[in-house]
Structure formats: structure tokens, C-alpha cells
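SAMPLE LOG
Freezer: B-3
Tube label: C17
Construct: single chain, 276 aa
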Amino acid sequence: MAPVANRLKGKVAIVTGAGQGIGKGIAIRLAQEGAHVVIAEYKAENAHAVADEISATGPRALAYPVDIGDTDKINQMVKDVVQEFGQIDILVNNAGVLETLPLFDLTPEKWDWLQRVNQRGLFFCLQAVAMQMVAQIPEEVKSAGKAEHSYGKIVNFSSVAGRKGRPYAAHYSAAKWAVISMTQSAALYLAQYNINVNAICPGVVPTPMWEDIDKTQAARFGMQKGEWIQNTVDKVPLKRAAKPEDIAAAVAFLCSEDADYITGQALNVDGGMEMN
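STRUCTURE (predicted):
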């Protein structure tokens, strides 16, 4: 689906992990629909490259190098974005890490490393941005306990691994299951302010992360490069991997007024890998 011109005009969006892959695709799509975009990315050079690409043809884009696993840096990011743009309307919690490991090789250190970003970082980013969104709501609306229109959109990234366990990614599946639960809890709490909170569950998307997974799994099972990921794609009912643009289109919809009556949902964007 082509971008909808001006659907997000004037909105301010933070996209975490936006320096490459899916996050970059989302940042570009939101900008194409009129949003000003904050490229919240661990690698500074990637953040600046994406921001420059967007700013060359579209609305303002701000490169913001940040470690999403550090709550102090998250809180400072929110303050800096508000100082720069005056508001925050959209958060896309996309940042994540993954290392596939057999169950018996998963150490406490590996567990904590992954949860620091995928679960803890995601939650406290959601919390900090949601608090700012609530602060932007007029007092009479807050005191009424309901709102007539949406006062913010939050999209958290889960995964098809959050729908079903994975033998070589127990820590990742646990985190992504947790994302769905946190999304539902936040949606229930923030409903009084008419702030929508939803999740996206992508399937196979050929990004640097998936390339790393393929390399590791191919070595583990004695396969050629690309063979493991192709075997996975062959099991997809639509018989192809997703493109970052496929995921970005779904996110843009959830960030728009077209999704004002959708909250607490986890949307599979996976070509039919999971149907639940």
C-alpha cells in the first residue's frame, strides 16, 4: 500500500531502532505520511544517515543516538524531543536484539542482555512517552475520564516468536510474549486518556538481524548461507518473506486516525505464519 499523503501531517513520532531494517522503513513511511520523526538509534552513524535521508525530501527528522536499555537516557530523550518539537504524538517501540542459543547454552548474562532492551527498555520507553502524552491532554479531558479523540499512538514490537515458543530463542520468545502482555496492560490503563496501544508481530523480514540468525543457524545445522532462512520462508503460506515496507504500512495505519478504535491488539504481519 502506498503512503497516504498528509495522514500524519504535523505529528511527532519517535521510532526506536530506526537506524536500519524495519525501523528505518517505519521512519521513512511515517515521514512520507507527514510526520516529523525522531531516529532513536544506538549507532550514531546510522541515526544520522537515516535522518539525513528523510530530511532531504520530507518533514524534519532528528537523529537521536540513545541506548534504549538505559532508563535515564530514555527520560532525557523524551525531554529533549519535547523541547525540540513541543510534543510527542507517536511512539514506535521497535528496538530489539537477538542471539539464537540452544536452551542449555542460555546463561543469566545472555538472558539479562536481551531482556534489558527487548522487555525492560521497551516498557520504560512506553512509560516515559505515555506520561508525556498524558501531560499534553487538557485538564478538563483528564478529569472527565474519557476523550473524544485519540491523544497518542503507541506501537510495540513483538514477533511471531511471541505467539509460539522457539527452541533456539527461549529468551527472545519470553520477551516477545511479555510485549503482548505489556501492550494489553498499557492499553487498558491508557484507555481513560484515549491513547491507543497496539503491537506488531512480524514474521520473516530480510534485515541485518535475520541475516545474522541465518548465519548462526546455518552453521549450527551444517547448511549453506541463506538455506535456513529460505526453509523458513518456504513454510509461509504466502510463500515470500516480508519487506520492511510491509511492516511499515501496518505501523502507519495503527499510528493514524484510521485506527482510533483499535487498542490492545497484536497484529500479525507475517504472510500467514501464525493465525491466532
